[in-house]
């Protein structure tokens, strides 16, 4: 953000149902997020219900479909152009299956955050997305799982951890029931909270890539 107390402009990147986007929209409306506004919602999936949520909220929604590009580089270039054109301060990956390319990660250092549906470093990295995360957690027999909000760097799910919220695994859980509980009890709470803390300038990352949150 350029001046003191300027409203932080968000780009929210989505791929699916958009419940995390909805949590951000609702938190801004309920003033649980202070000093931030959604400038644009970008989806790589034209059928993402998240785009309908954006439309219903009167937000600018853009679909950038990789299917329409002959190369990933051209897709990444256009994605960066769109982000730059909205002069966003923070990129939020909210149920987003697009991996950010180095050209975007480098241009937005510690200005991209992601919500991961597990307690990183558990059940993260390649192949760990959506329901697969919960399948792995149940297969391992963990008694506690949860969600993590972290800064995005060039490695998958490896950036500095901002917030985490633990959620109990219950007897008889399926990947679907565990996913739902983690979304309700963790994701939809810590992602808006992290945005609010960043907007208030309370989040810093030290030389060891450890996040510190000011009181
Ligand atoms: C959520 O479990 C989220 O953690 C993961 O994608 C799932 C769907 O998110 N990244 P949403 O409903 O599209 O926000």
Ligand roster: 5-O-phosphono-beta-D-ribofuranosylamine
Describe the strand arrangement of the main beta sheet, using strand numbers. 3-2-1-4-5-6-7
- Rg on CA atoms, Å: 17 Å
Distance between the amino and carboxyl termini: 21 Å
Summarize the amount of helix as a percent range. Answer: 25-40%
Average pLDDT, all residues: 96
Oligomeric state of shown chains: single chain
Number of strands: 9
Please describe what this structure looks like:
This protein is α/β, with parallel strands linked by helices and 215 residues long. 34% of the residues lie in helices and 23% in strands. The protein has helices at residues 19-29, 49-56, 72-85, 102-107, 131-140, 175-199, and strands at residues 8-14, 36-43, 61-63, 90-93, 112-116, 144-151, 161-168, 203-205, 211-213. The strands form 2 sheets. It has a 7-stranded mixed beta sheet, covered by helices on one side. A two-stranded antiparallel ribbon has the order 8-9. The model has no long low-confidence stretch (mean pLDDT 96). It binds 5-O-phosphono-beta-D-ribofuranosylamine.
Brief characterization of the structure:
With 215 residues, the chain is of the alpha/beta class. 34% of the residues lie in helices and 23% in strands.
Keywords, separated by commas or semicolons:
binds 5-O-phosphono-beta-D-ribofuranosylamine; alpha/beta; single chain; two-stranded antiparallel ribbon; 6 helices; 215 residues; seven-stranded mixed beta sheet; 9 strands
């Amino acid at each position: 953000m350029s001046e003191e107390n300027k409203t932080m402009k968000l780009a929210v990147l989505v791929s699916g149902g958009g419940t995390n986007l909805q949590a951000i929209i609702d938190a801004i409306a309920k003033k649980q997020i202070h000093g931030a506004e959604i400038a644009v919602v970008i989806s790589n999936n034209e059928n993402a219900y998240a785009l309908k949520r954006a439309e219903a909220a009167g937000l600018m929604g853009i679909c950038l479909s990789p299917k329409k590009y002959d190369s990933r580089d051209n897709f990444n270039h256009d994605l960066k152009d769109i982000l730059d054109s909205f002069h966003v301060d923070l990129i939020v990956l909210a149920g987003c299956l697009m991996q950010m390319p180095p050209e975007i990660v480098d241009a937005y250092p510690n200005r991209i955050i992601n919500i991961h549906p597990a307690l990183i470093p558990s059940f993260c990295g390649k192949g760990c997305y959506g329901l697969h995360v919960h399948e792995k957690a149940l297969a391992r027999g963990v008694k506690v799982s949860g969600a993590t909000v972290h800064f995005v760097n060039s490695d998958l799910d490896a950036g500095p951890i901002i917030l985490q919220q633990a959620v109990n695994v219950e007897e008889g859980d399926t990947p679907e029931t565990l996913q739902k509980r983690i979304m309700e009890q963790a994701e939809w709470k810590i992602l808006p909270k992290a945005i609010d803390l960043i907007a208030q300038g309370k989040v810093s990352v030290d030389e060891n890539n450890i996040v510190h949150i000011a009181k």
